[in-house]
Write a structure and sequence with these properties.
about 200 residues, mainly alpha, Rna Polymerase Sigma Factor, Chain: A, 2 domains, two-stranded antiparallel ribbon, 9 helices, 2 strands, about 0% strand
Length: about 200
């Protein structure tokens, strides 16, 4: 096993270059290559197979896949980590007061927008869609799209095919919905701060 690891170590600079090609800084690349040596060692201990081909050739593909998987695992973990800047810590080492967005208020704004009294009345008379005015039909349409995409979790492309509404029209409608909800939230937020 030591001879296999020494053979792998002979190509140390190449392994660093491979990891660097995945857009990783030098320090992280060195850590990943070190982790690769541990993985190779564990692989050789657990499975009685060798990563050496005939006449002392290393299985480069095995090493490449190991390095690639380690980089992808690291990038996946980085997505889950949230970094906090030092600007929120004052000189005493305690956290300074930072106003965070009020999640309850945002959810309440979305619910209030969606559960518009006019829309709830329209749901009771859904068979009479032809009798709705243009303004009421617009209210109905926006909430119906919101329900299908956000509540029922339909993919936009799938919903476009099923409803025969163009993808771009649905996308623009979602932008209008987001603007209306943001407006609802901002008015709620400013009235709350006025007290």
């Amino acid at each position: 096993m030591k001879s296999v690891l020494s053979k792998v170590f002979e190509k140390h600079k190449q392994w660093l270059e491979i990891v660097g090609s995945f857009n990783v800084n030098k320090d992280t690349a060195a850590d990943i290559v070190s982790e690769m040596y541990i993985n190779v060692s564990n692989h050789l201990e657990k499975k009685d197979t060798s990563i050496i081909y005939q006449k002392d050739e290393i299985n480069y593909y095995f090493i490449y896949v190991t390095l690639r998987n380690l980089v992808f695992d690291l990038k996946r973990k980085e997505k889950k980590v949230t970094y906090v800047g030092t600007e929120f810590i004052d000189d005493t080492g305690t956290e300074a007061y930072v106003e965070t967005p009020d999640t309850y208020s945002k959810v309440k704004a979305i619910n209030d927008w969606y559960e518009n009294p006019e829309y709830l009345k329209m749901l009771e008379n859904e068979t009479n869609l032809d009798s709705f005015t243009t303004e009421k039909m617009h209210i109905y349409y926006l909430r119906r799209i919101f329900k299908e995409v956000y509540i029922d979790k339909k993919k936009l492309m799938q919903f476009s095919r099923e409803s025969k509404i163009t993808y771009w029209s649905l996308r623009n409608t979602l932008k209008i919905i987001k603007k209306q909800i943001n407006l609802e939230y901002e008015t709620r937020d400013t009235t709350r701060k006025d007290f």
